[in-house]
Amino acid sequence: MHISDGILSAPTLAVGFVGTVALAAVTMRKLDMEDIPKISVITAVFFVASLIKIPIGATSIHLILNGMVGVVLGWRAFPAIMLGLILQAILFGHGGITVIGVNAVMLGGGALLGFMVWQLRHRFQIKKRELVFAALAGATSVFSSGIILALALLTTGEAFWATAYYVLAAHVPIILIEAAVVGSSAVFLTKVKPEILAGQKDNPTSSS
Amino acid sequence: MALDIDRYAHVDSSIQSWDPRLKIAALGFFVLSVAILKTLPMAISALIAAVIFHRISKLPRHFVMHGMMAAILFLLPFFIILPFTYPTQNQTELVEFSFGWEGFRLACLIFIKAIAIILTSFTIFGSSRFDVSMIALQRLKCPKMLTQMLLFTYRYTYTFLDDMKRMQTSMFARGFVPRANLITLKTYGNFVGTLLVRSFERTERIYHAMLSKGYQGEFHTLVTFKINRKDWLKFCLVVIVVVSLLSGEIFSGFTPAEKGWY
């Protein structure tokens, strides 16, 4: 999910770039050399995984997985998503160079919120909390990205208000799908390789 | 790999021989100025300029068409949504719906601008090797960390893409059929998890190998850049195009696309 070149107004694009630079400055400050290959790997994986198509009726949608990036990378999710978007714009012409800022705030911001939701699992002692909170993180990320996208369209002009409404409506099934995929993915990783997940209490090295 | 952006970087042209730093700076400037255009005549001029840049670069047409198709599919809905939802008074009644020409013109503007921008980004990054483009970006004061990560991700993406295709083949061979149900979603959840673990463990080994060879967060390269007078001349030409586009936008009295065709 991203917005394409040529749609948004110059002020909206500018706000996107300013927001991206600010978020990138905050989230990249703590990075060290060891993070460079790690973030690159995970960005590449999600880049590839987002090509998976899920059939719905006659059509199909592709996974977004920004919540999963948050669950795996924590705060480092923001540079990872920004990276993915830059590559996507350069390699495939998807999205576009001028909208990297808006898209990064939209998807990366969603990922950061997803990570915050994911961290809440430490406060609750319930069964299957990985499943519950990862699913919530997946849903939160897509939901908040949808809201930011709608806001970007709303601020661009009255002409796009109806479009913003359709965009929001289209997000409802995506939220459910992402919740299911991110939830089961996190359960899988908890069993197989828990140190890969962000913010694990028993493994301080992988937390960020 | 068929998707490599720099698979035609060897094609000799005056865009290819242009110093990558000046190329990225000049055409990047062009792209940004196209994004802020509001009138149809200027957007069309920008598209013509973008097509000319692409023709000079001699990059094959099918190479850009692939990326273009995705963008066109994304943009087509605007031709349906905008004309029928644009808030306006003077509408033409068209089969019960009210068709607003303002919305249609806006959709045209968006479409033309997007095509011009995408075409130009293919011209920029298709005409030199990806690592050279990244080094050029780094010289243009793009953070080293970012260009490093871009290079890594770029290389890994194609490796993992092959990995994913193999895993999918084995899934389908075992009788998996994706449907709109919970089992499909759960399977894909585990699929993403597996892909993560496999890629992570594989690249951990690569990283250790790099560390043992003295990797310290940057690559050293034999690529050197040299700017000559021709490079500056090309730079100035593009800047002239940009300036005339922007002054045409401001001083020529064309009306924004929402208000009129010209």
- The assigned structural class of chain B equals mainly alpha
The helicity of chain A comes to 55-70%
| Helix run count of chain B | 8
- Note the main sheet of chain A: 2 strands, antiparallel
Topology:
The complex is a heterodimer of chains A (208) and B (262).
Chain A (H helix, E strand, L loop, with lengths): L9 H19 L6 H15 L3 E4 L2 E4 L3 H8 L3 H16 L7 H20 L9 H28 L4 H32 L16
Antiparallel strand pairs in A: 1-2
Helix pairs in contact in A: 1-4, 1-5, 2-3, 2-4, 3-4, 3-5, 3-6, 4-5, 5-6, 6-7
Chain B lengths: L19 H16 L4 H18 L3 H25 L6 E3 L2 E3 L1 H26 L3 H10 L4 H30 L8 H31 L16 H23 L11
Helix pairs in contact in B: 1-4, 1-8, 2-4, 2-8, 3-4, 5-6
Descriptive keywords:
heterodimer; A: 208 residues; mainly alpha; Arp2/3 complex 21 kDa subunit ARPC3; two-stranded antiparallel sheet; 66% helix; disordered C terminus; B: 262 residues; two-stranded antiparallel ribbon; 8 helices; 2% strand
